[in-house]
Write a structure and sequence with these properties.
Helix content: 25-40%
Radius of gyration: 21 Å
Number of domains: 1
Strand content: 15-25%
Distance between the termini: 46 Å
Structural class: alpha+beta
Strand order of the largest sheet: 7-6-8-9-13-14-5-15
Bound molecules: flavin-adenine dinucleotide
């Protein structure tokens, strides 16, 4: 049995591919005490085939996003490659008029799933939708109509796992599209290499850019901040303010008694998000920003030209000629240089390159093999920021509750970080100015 049986692989993002593909059905996905999913052995493993580890996006099966994507897209005519994005055929910006209001960004992802169904390219679309179940507010679902797909619009900053839907793909013939974070798409690709049905049936993969996932306790924490009293049965993470900048969205919680509470990004969500509170350990070891193994990747247009528009705008990076054709024929997106796409994710690029390099450096011999080499950044401010944020990440994960005392426990680290930032502003600015004269970080 691989290390998934019993205690679960560490780090594990809880994607559930291992549980879906285990030939003996030994694994089930269950909540751990941190509010994350992990595979748990529910019966003895007798064959030790190791498939669970071979499809794990955070194990080291001798494959990484480069080798997987090279096989998928390396020979596509006209394909190009950048170290930050992986392969890409085209990059574009815009929105889907009808889907924009409900979408997290410009609604392009939902539009695309619907178009794939409408054109008969797939029979079913797998995406994430609200459940109404307080114990599991979101789940992957298999849908076969546009109306059903629309119920999944928006981003779920909440743990979800694919074991159930992948078992359904294996059981029910047909062609499927599936949405996923970079690590989930990587796991599906590893699964496709080893399972013919998955290879044949999953026809289109739609990736989402990802800076980090959050545990279930993140939602509990924000609900407490928002003053939610009853049992939470639903949350909308990206409720838009059309008259305000795109980053100024709010979360809306609904409760079992029909109540509704809302809280804006600036009233504590941003603090928890950007300081990596409730972020699973696996996210610390991710070097895939743009879901490099996906046929198409959607993200927010975090660029000054678009981020003032609170109605939301999508950036789209395409790798598959088929998806490019569907987008070109069906929706009026504008081309945008790929360097702008990279620039829109500057924070995520930094986290999954320089910050990751430093974490790997700190791990020493224990560091997993990644595409980023371990390195100690020259900037003492960056070193301090990475260290303090990781302390907060661990503390938030271990802290017994998600109430106001959690923030109190964070206060010394928050103060430390504020001091580091002040010092960086005073001492660091001339250095940064010099760097930007030399060409800057994002090119
Ligand atoms: C955890 C997380 C972190 C993210 N981080 C970033 C970031 O740093 N920068 C950035 O630009 N964008 C990020 N995104 C992506 C962004 O929030 C939007 O999902 C993306 O831009 C698509 O928006 P849209 O309006 O085109 O899609 P929509 O029309 O809103 O459709 C989104 C589709 O994705 C599915 N979906 C939602 N959540 C999940 C999930 N957790 N797993 C699988 N499928 C899901 C939905 O069911 C729906 O089908 C993140 C998303 C998530 C879930």
């Amino acid at each position: 049995m691989g290390s998934h049986g019993g205690t679960g692989l560490d780090p594990c993002i809880g994607c559930g591919l291992c549980a879906a593909l285990c030939p003996e059905g030994v694994l089930a996905m269950e909540w751990n005490r941190y509010g994350e999913y992990n595979p748990v052995a529910v019966s003895p493993c007798t064959t030790a085939c190791g498939l669970c580890e071979k499809v794990c996006p955070f194990a080291d099966p001798g494959e990484d996003e480069d080798t997987i994507a090279e096989r998928l897209y390396g020979a596509v005519p006209g394909i190009r490659h950048r170290p930050e994005t992986g392969y890409y055929l085209a990059s574009s910006v815009g929105y889907a008029e009808e889907h924009r209001a409900a979408g997290a960004s410009g609604g392009v992802a939902t539009w695309l799933l619907e178009a794939l169904l409408r054109e008969g390219i797939v029979d079913r679309a797998i995406c994430v939708a609200p459940t109404g179940d307080p114990e599991k507010l979101f789940a992957f679902r298999v849908f076969d109509t546009a109306e059903a797909v629309r119920t999944g619009a928006g981003s779920a900053y909440y743990p979800v796992e694919v074991s159930g839907v992948i078992r359904e793909v294996l059981a029910v013939p047909g062609r499927y599209a599936v949405t996923g974070l970079p690590c989930f798409i990587k796991a599906i690709r590893l699964g496709q290499q080893r399972n013919k049905k998955l290879r044949e049936r999953i026809a289109v993969t739609l990736g989402l850019v990802c800076g980090q996932l959050k545990s279930r306790r993140f939602t509990e924490y924000v609900a407490a901040l928002a003053g939610v009293q009853g049992e939470v049965t639903g949350v909308r993470y990206r409720a838009k303010n059309p008259d305000r900048p795109a980053g100024d969205y709010h979360y809306v919680f609904t409760t079992a008694d029909g109540g509704e509470e809302r809280i804006s990004w600036t009233r504590g969500i941003s603090e928890a998000w950007t300081n990596r509170w409730f972020t699973p350990k696996a996210c610390n070891y991710c070097d895939d920003i743009f879901a490099e193994c996906a046929d198409v990747t959607c993200m927010d247009a975090w660029l000054p030209e678009y981020s003032e528009d609170g109605r939301g705008t999508s950036l789209v990076l395409v790798r598959s000629p088929l998806v490019r054709e569907i987008l070109e024929q069906g929706i009026a997106l504008d081309p945008i240089p790929v360097r702008e796409v990279v620039r829109s994710q500057a924070g995520v690029v930094a986290a999954k390159r320089e910050h990751l390099a430093y974490r790997l450096y700190l791990d020493g011999e224990r560091a997993p093999r990644k595409r980023v080499a371990p390195a100690r950044p020259k900037s003492p401010f960056l070193r301090a920021e990475v260290a303090v944020k990781d302390r907060m990440r661990v503390l938030s994960r271990e802290h017994p509750g998600t109430g106001a005392d959690l923030r109190a426990a964070m206060r010394p680290d928050l103060e430390h970080l504020a001091t580091v930032r002040r010092a960086a502003r005073v001492i660091g600015s001339p250095l940064r100015a010099l760097q930007s004269i030399r060409g800057g970080r994002d090119g």
